[in-house]
Amino acid sequence: MSEKLGFIGLGIMGKGMALNLLKKGHDLCVWNRTSSKVDELVAAGATAGNSPADVASKSDIVFICVSDTPDVEAVVLGESGVLEGVKSGALVVDHSTISPQVTKEIAAKLNAKGVEMLDAPISGGNEGAANGTLSIMIGGDAAQVGRAMPYLEAMGKTITHVGAQGAGQSAKLVNQILVIGTMVSMGEAMLFAEASGLDLEKTLEAVSGGAAGSWTLSNRGPQVAKRDWRPGFTIDLQQKDLRLVLEAADQLGMPAMTTSLAFNLYRTLQTLGLGHEGNHAIVKALENMVDVRVGE
Amino acid sequence: MSEKLGFIGLGIMGKGMALNLLKKGHDLCVWNRTSSKVDELVAAGATAGNSPADVASKSDIVFICVSDTPDVEAVVLGESGVLEGVKSGALVVDHSTISPQVTKEIAAKLNAKGVEMLDAPISGGNEGAANGTLSIMIGGDAAQVGRAMPYLEAMGKTITHVGAQGAGQSAKLVNQILVIGTMVSMGEAMLFAEASGLDLEKTLEAVSGGAAGSWTLSNRGPQVAKRDWRPGFTIDLQQKDLRLVLEAADQLGMPAMTTSLAFNLYRTLQTLGLGHEGNHAIVKALENMVDVRVGE
Amino acid sequence: MSEKLGFIGLGIMGKGMALNLLKKGHDLCVWNRTSSKVDELVAAGATAGNSPADVASKSDIVFICVSDTPDVEAVVLGESGVLEGVKSGALVVDHSTISPQVTKEIAAKLNAKGVEMLDAPISGGNEGAANGTLSIMIGGDAAQVGRAMPYLEAMGKTITHVGAQGAGQSAKLVNQILVIGTMVSMGEAMLFAEASGLDLEKTLEAVSGGAAGSWTLSNRGPQVAKRDWRPGFTIDLQQKDLRLVLEAADQLGMPAMTTSLAFNLYRTLQTLGLGHEGNHAIVKALENMVDVRVGE
Amino acid sequence: MSEKLGFIGLGIMGKGMALNLLKKGHDLCVWNRTSSKVDELVAAGATAGNSPADVASKSDIVFICVSDTPDVEAVVLGESGVLEGVKSGALVVDHSTISPQVTKEIAAKLNAKGVEMLDAPISGGNEGAANGTLSIMIGGDAAQVGRAMPYLEAMGKTITHVGAQGAGQSAKLVNQILVIGTMVSMGEAMLFAEASGLDLEKTLEAVSGGAAGSWTLSNRGPQVAKRDWRPGFTIDLQQKDLRLVLEAADQLGMPAMTTSLAFNLYRTLQTLGLGHEGNHAIVKALENMVDVRVGE
Fold first, then answer.
1. Average of pLDDT values for D259-270?
2. N or C: which end of chain C has fewer CB within 10 A?
3. C233: pLDDT strictly greater than 80
């Protein structure tokens, strides 16, 4: 028998995820900061909660998908937040990408009320959210992972339990370190190719299939060659996640040299007002240094 | 009607490539600096030349596959080198990875004797050489690329004509910038994962299929998790290629920030005597800084 | 006629500064988190306050010298803090090195009670504090700078009004960027010298007087050559200040490449348990990478 | 009794040095690639040689001061070079800044003809050359240093024997690592100051006297604040020396992280056509990244 579900945060990602839960016939109560987004979900069969606390009071499992650490703090710990309304024995599943340390602090406060929490950040973009093909990285108790699994399977395709409380968030940051490393070296490589007078498309074709190949190169390389800066993931969001990486690396005492370099380069693009462009626009940070343009 | 072929340089890569030419029934004359390697080729049907000049004098197309810039200079321009014996109208195809600028200088000297040259560096490892599945990036005249194509197809699978003289070498360096960028960020990411207490194999599983995915992560990530440092490509060879990148970037006037960082890190591993290990051992350069070991 | 003074924070720096105010015959009420330090000041003529609020209630000008941003927040905004006791028309002078942004926030809260604030971070070490030869960088209103000047002159020698509210903190961070830049290049230079087989002391002698010269090289270079890691300023404190620089650079949208590099290197030394050593031990971060020791 | 002297290379530095030798009444034979510069020396009492070989044949001690490694190779090993004319028992003193390794190779060839060599690179700018106040860093045999000393004292003020053959060149590179480290952090610091809204001149005043102080900050900081890019030492020359540092660090197996960063930044300025500006213009490399101008 299905548990009663709640969903808080109906942005680009959250909306698709909530719709996928509804499609499986689950009972779903939703809330969003700006209420206009709620209507579409209600039209699809959801009920509307008045506040995160209200949603939590009506749910066995509460899914959260908001932007940043302070947003999760607000909807869980703030006034009329999840913590006020949640029932003992309930489960909170947080899909936001936030600080692994803050995740543990929030979990501790929920635990004190008899509530379990999983951190379950996602990747895969809005297509993944819409199609139910997200990657979901989960930290927390194995039994609770099992409890959430039927619902997670409605939203994601690669669902991995990577470790204890906070491990999901850490794995997401691992993901971001990797993305940014391939991104910045792609920028450097394409500037080198341009300056060498290479045909960019043929060069991408030549190198994408071998040891230099990556998702980034196959998907964003051709965009760079055409100077198409439409975002899969914006520089502003990337920079937010890199800030989490640098903060966590500092707390862990680990070096983060490529991430620091990428962070400095992305920051210059934000200063130039380009934070809304795709994260593959990192190449512009290098172009600006030498007044050369790839693909022109 | 098939042209007469020569092959100079029967190392790990060259041997497999030459064998693939023989398998197609081509007439092949070979030479190697240490003659022991020649015997295996002769047993497979090749004839042995006395010197690069001798091979060149008997060939319409001379393939070269040696290690570094000075090696190509030696076998082409040195005593009893290709330049001494080569026939007007012949074609030289250089599969070595060397400086794009030196490539152009050597080509100019061959051109002056009525000889054409293609730079055609390869990637794909010894398996690729053995199986005839190499990636080959070619710079030079289109008609000559067409002339060489039937023979290149015996050795490689992805064969791309990327531009004029030297463009093949430049594309290979583009390849190396990309490889090294994914490699160094993989090191940083796996150290972060270890310090975060993540299960490394589950984490690799969770992130390899999405936007963070790369050939490097899929092929070398599991090796790092098991501390298996057997090389697909050694640190020493990687460092040689990065030196070419940095030299070329300097000449082009382009920034090479990630490559410089990787170069500094790899250098420390060479200083510690680890140059023979695989290039995924870059993670050790970071581990040494904090006395932490991934996967232990 | 002299104003009544208060001093909060009697650590290594604060104690010397407070004693210098007493020597000039000023009326001084003091407070420290651990009360043992108060006795020495009382013996020298100070009166003891019960809390920051108590000190503030008895003072026209309140000097603060504590460690970090949260410490200033605690003694000003916390329970029984300065804000509770301070009189309208009073002046608060903060000698701590903290976030320029938090400085402005605290000043705004004091202003709302009719209290002025100057940010006045210091440099010059404990000798400077003891001898009254500190450098003091001041941000805030010019009239208040004039009001504080007679007392600042008892504590410092180079006293500069660099701009508006927060500018003193920003100037201190400028100072730290410069210190760290000379420090990390000194480490790199001395490792290079060692590996080149140079006589370190003669080399320092040869280069210190010219264009390569710096306070760091003259004062810390000889320490490095003798592997004397006693701190003028510890790695832990340096790292705290670099964290402020990186945070501020992020808010300003400016690149901070050398600071990021130094931050990563210092962090590794903290991870190895060396945070209590002098900031010139940065050279060890480089030594550890290649297992070479300068001066051995 | 004075030895007969030769001087090869009468550029900005060499001219002043040769004039200082003449002022002390020494017998001096000179040569320069472009002969116009010779006339001024002849007017001051020198004799003109026809070639480096000619100068060497008439001299007991031959001083050389040219630009780069290939220039020293040309005037010593080239046609009509020093090696052709030099007398057994003579001493060659090379004031150029070149590769420590090439220095050793050239010395070996001179030694084979019974000729000693000292590497004696200089710093101190054209004022130092004119006023006889250069710093001279010497590598080589102590007895030969003693032999050269009376003449070196006519040209320099801080004269230091730092070690064996090549050590002078290595010490000069140490000098350049330090210069560049203070230079790049000064750029970062002044950009931070500008973005923070600080008064640049007051900030320089506040920080120059303490732990952040350096020759660079005192001499080039005020130039940056006024956007005065006239060179003490040009970016092109600085870049040439950094190339020597990076090459030597590679051979020594040592990390060179700050130097790599500075090299990348300077390179961008060369690409933009600013190589003739002073090396303090490094700040422009950072300004270009964010479209901000210090001091405007």
1. 98
2. N
3. yes
pLDDT band at residue D1 using 50, 70 and 90 as cut-offs? low
Separation between Cα atoms, residue B58 and residue D151, nearest integer Å: 63
Regarding whether A227 and A284 lie in a shared domain, the answer is yes
Evaluate if residue C2 carries a pLDDT over 80.
Answer: no
Report the CATH number that the domain containing residue C76 is assigned in CATH: 3.40.50.720
pLDDT tens by residue, A242-290: 999 999 999 999 999 999 999 999 999 999 999 999 999 999 999 999 9
Question: Between the CA of residue B164 and those of B169, B170, C95, what are the distances in Å?
Answer: 10, 10, 64
Do residues B117 and B102 lie in contact, with contact meaning Cβ atoms separated by under 8 Å? no
pLDDT value of residue B1:
53
Interchain proximity D291–A271, CB inside 8 Å: yes
Mutation target to probe the D interface, by most D beta carbons within 10 A, among B238, B244, B250 is B250
One domain, residues C69 and C54: yes
pLDDT, tens digit, 9 for 90 and up, residues C266-278: 999 999 999 999 9
Residue pair A159/A153 in contact (Cβ under 8 Å)? The answer is yes
Residue A100 pLDDT level (bands cut at 50, 70, 90): very high
Contact partners for chain A, using 3 or more CB pairs closer than 8 A, are: B, C, D
The answer to whether residues B57 and B120 belong to one domain is: yes
* D260 interface with B at CB cutoff 8 Å: yes
pLDDT at A1: 53
One domain for residues B286 and B237: yes
- Point out the domain boundary residue: C164, C181, C210: C164
Angle at B123 between CA B117 and CA B126, to 5 degrees: 115
Q: Which residues of C touch D254 (CB under 8 A)?
A: 191-192, 195, 286, 290, 292
Is the CB of D189 inside 8 Å of chain C's CB atoms?
yes
Question: Taking Cα atoms as reference points, which of C263, C176, D182, C239 lies closest to residue A260?
Answer: C263
Mean pLDDT, to the nearest integer, of A71-93? 97
Domain count within chain A: 2
D268 touches chain A (CB under 8 A): yes
Tell me the C-alpha distance between A71 and D278, whole Å. 49
Closest residue of D to A265, CA-based? D289
d(CA C109, CA C102): 11
Active-site annotation holds for A172: yes
Residue A248 lies in a domain: yes
- The Cβ of residue D197 has, within 10 Å, a number of other Cβ atoms equal to 15
- pLDDT tens digits along A128-174: 999 999 999 999 999 999 999 999 999 999 999 999 999 999 999 99
Provide the residue range defining the domain that includes B153. Answer: 5-164
Same domain, A246 and A137: no
Chain B positions in Cβ-Cβ contact with residue D260 (cut-off 8 Å): 260-261, 263-264
Say yes or no: C44 and C134 in one domain: yes
Least CB-CB distance to D135: which of C185, C206, C261?
C206
Does any domain span residue C295? no
Contact state of A207 with B259 under an 8 Å Cβ cutoff: no
What is d(CA C149, CA B220) in angstroms, rounded to the nearest whole number? 64
* Rounded Cα gap, residues D243 and D229, in angstroms: 22
Give the domain CATH number at B180.
Answer: 1.10.1040.10
Residues B135 and B38 occupy one common structural domain: yes
d(CA A171, nearest CA chain B) in Å: 6
Q: Which of C146, C164, C182 is the last residue of a domain?
A: C164
> Does residue A296 sit within a domain?
no
The answer to whether residues D147 and D41 belong to one domain is: yes
* Inter-chain CB proximity B185 and A188 less than 8 Å: no
Position B76 pLDDT exceeds 80 = yes
Residues 6+ apart with CB under 8 A from A118: A91, A92, A93, A94, A138, A139, A140, A141, A144, A145, A148, A168
CB distance from C292 to chain B under 8 Å? Answer: yes
Q: Which of these is catalytic: D172, D202, D226, D240?
A: D172
* pTM (2 d.p.): 0.95
